[in-house]
């Protein structure tokens, strides 16, 4: 989600991945070699446009 501050050119954004922190598998080579997905993560960014 993001918010643009009116008349300033400033934008704030928050991205969230795997919000519930669910364990999941993105792939496997065989039953012994599984590749887990990424855990919960957040990314906060600010952007200034001039």
TrEMBL record:
Name assigned to this protein: TonB-dependent receptor
InterPro entries: Beta-barrel_TonB_sf (IPR036942), TonB-dep_rcpt-like (IPR039426)
Keywords: Cell outer membrane, Membrane, Transmembrane, Transmembrane beta strand, Transport
Family per record: Belongs to the TonB-dependent receptor family.
Signal peptide range in chain numbering: none
SUPFAM superfamilies to which the protein is assigned, alphabetical: Porins
Keyword Acetylation listed: no
Membrane-topology descriptor: Multi-pass membrane protein
Subcellular localization: Cell outer membrane
Keyword Transmembrane helix: no
Entry superkingdom: Bacteria
């Amino acid at each position: 989600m993001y918010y643009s501050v009116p008349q300033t050119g400033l934008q704030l954004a928050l991205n969230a991945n795997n919000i519930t922190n669910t364990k999941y598998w993105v792939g496997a080579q065989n039953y012994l070699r599984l590749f887990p997905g990424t855990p919960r993560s957040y990314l906060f960014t600010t952007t200034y446009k001039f």
